[in-house]
Each structure stands twice: as C-alpha cells, then as structure tokens.
Amino acid sequence: MYYELYIDVLFLINFMMDSLLLLAVKKVLRCPVKNGRVFVGGGLGAVLTCVLVALPLPAVVKLPAFYAGVAGMMIVVGLDIRGGRRFWKALGLLYVSAFLMEGMLQILRPWVRTGSLFFASAVPVYYLMCGIWRFLTRLRKEEERLCEVVLQVGPEKYRMHALLDTGNGLTDPVSGEPVSVIDPACAQKMLEKGRTDTGVRYIPYRTVSGEGVMPVFRAEQMEIFLPGEKGEFRMQRPIIGICEGHISGPEEYQMILNPDVLTC
After folding, report:
1. Residue 91 lies inside a defined structural domain of this protein
2. 87 DSSP 8-state letter
3. Are residues 90 and 166 in the same domain?
4. Residues 25 and 121 occupy one common structural domain
5. What is the total count of domains within the chain?
6. For every one of its 264 residues, what pLDDT tens digit does the chain have, with 9 covering 90 and above?
7. Domain boundary pick from 143, 161, 182
8. Which are the contacts of 224, defined by CB distance < 8 A and separation ≥ 6?
9. Does some domain include residue 29?
10. Beta pairing partners, 171
C-alpha cells in the first residue's frame, strides 16, 4: 500500500493553517510584529514540514522535529520570540490553538465535505477561535481583579467578594476620601441592626447614564485581601456607598472597590 502526496497541496494547507495559528498567538500575546513576518513564519513552518515528510527519517527523529523544532522555528521567525518564559508560553498557546482549531474543523467536516470548502472554513474558524481567546482573557483579567473584603460595621464583621474597579473614581466631596460601593441587599443587612451612629448621609455622583445622589456611611474597618501574593490592606473608617441597584450576581461580587483605598 502506498499514498500519493502532492507536495504543493501539502505546502499550501500547512502554510494556511500555520499562519492562522501564529496570527491567533500574536493576538493573545499582543506581539509587536507585522502580519508579513507572521506569514513568513507560517511559510517556514510549511517548508520544514514538507522537508521532514519527504526525507526518509526514522520516527524517533521526525516526531521531535515536527512537534518541537518546526513549532519553535515558527515562533522565533514569525513572532520574534527567541527564548525565556514568553517562548514557552507562545509554544503552549500554539498547541492549544491547534487543538482548538482542529476540533472546530472536525465539527464542520460532516457539513463541508468538499476539500476546498472545508479548508476555506478555517478562516471563519480562526475568527471564532480568536473570539474565544478574547473571552477567556477577559474572564481571567476580571478574576484577577476580584478580591475578598471583610467589612466591620459596629461589632459585626461581614465577609464578601469585591471587584477592584479602576473606573470607580467616586470620592466624598467633603473629605475627599475614596468611596467604595456596596450592594443594597448587603447594606440593608448591615444597617438593620438598629445602629444609629453610622452617620448615613448623601453625596452626589455622576455616571455615563446620568447624575444622582447616593447614601453613604462610615464603617469601622475594612480589610482587603488581594489574590495571589499581592498583599493585604487595612483601612480605618472607610466610606461606603450604597448602590441603587444590584451590583452583580449573588455569587460574583457584592462590592466595587475604589482603587484609591489601597493607597490610603
């Protein structure tokens, strides 16, 4: 048994797929290289693949050359990443993108039986894959901004999740102190204990949707536990604003932190 292999078709298929994969890794890592260089890297990967297929080498040589050598050369030439942790990150992303794209193409195979249409579908699959990467990156960044807060109101302490939001620049017009915003359901639970010395008052605020006034009060203490090794912060007598509506889902976060509280 033997197979007929058209080297020009093999080159074109690998050039297209390698270029799309490199473009996806470039988007995720935000590599400052031009697309022309990425296509050169894709072309190099296709040429090396054709050479390795044509040469009568043993499998013990071909496999490492395929899965490490060719991919490494593509990253060096196409993305200008030459070593270190960033190189290994790019190599991992390249293989994850390859598995993701292959899975999507296999899903489409029953409906796109013509070879040319099947490989033409790789382009919309590439854009879909980039959208998935952007979504996952956005989730990871939001996860990094989530932290745990222990807020003391009177003798009681309340533990909750908070979002460190750089868009929250709300300050008290009287003292100039930063104001963090809490979910109204949490605030009601804190203030319904019958305490009258929290000093609830109103301050003006402005958002993209309009202006208004927000009730605020002073808590006794706020402890902030940032994720990883970013540290812990403690603030005495912080000003807490009560949001008009729910901040997020009940299992996500119940407080929006003003980033300036970390410097107080």
Report:
1. yes
2. H
3. no
4. yes
5. 2
6. 566 777 877 888 888 888 888 988 888 888 888 889 999 999 999 999 888 888 888 878 888 887 888 888 999 999 988 878 888 888 888 888 888 877 777 776 666 555 556 666 777 777 777 777 777 777 666 666 788 889 988 888 888 888 887 777 888 888 889 999 998 888 888 887 645 466 788 888 887 777 888 899 988 999 988 876 667 888 899 999 998 888 776 567 888 888 888 876
7. 143
8. 147, 148, 149, 162, 232, 233, 234, 235, 257, 261, 262
9. yes
10. 178
Write down the residue that tokens 């991992």 correspond to.
92
Helix (H) or strand (E) holding 220: none
Q: Is 97 helix (H, G, I), strand (E, B) or coil?
A: helix
Say what the pLDDT of residue 117 is.
63
Lookup: tokens for 177: 């102190």
The DSSP call for residue 228 is T
DSSP code of 110?
T
In a domain, 208, yes or no: yes
As beta bridge partners, residue 222 has 151, 235
> Helices 71-79 & 7-29, crossing angle to 10 degrees?
60
Do 99 and 149 sit in the same domain of this protein? no
Distances (CA, A) of 128 to 108, 124, 136: 13, 6, 12
Residue 233 β-bridge partners: 224
User: Would you say how long the chain is, in residues?
Assistant: 264
Burial of 201 (0-12, 13-18, 19+ CB in 10 A): middle
pLDDT of residue 251: 62
162 with 258, same domain: the answer is yes
Range of the domain at 115: 7-143
Can you give the pTM of this predicted structure? 0.55
How far is Cα 125 from Cα 150, in angstroms, rounded to an integer?
45
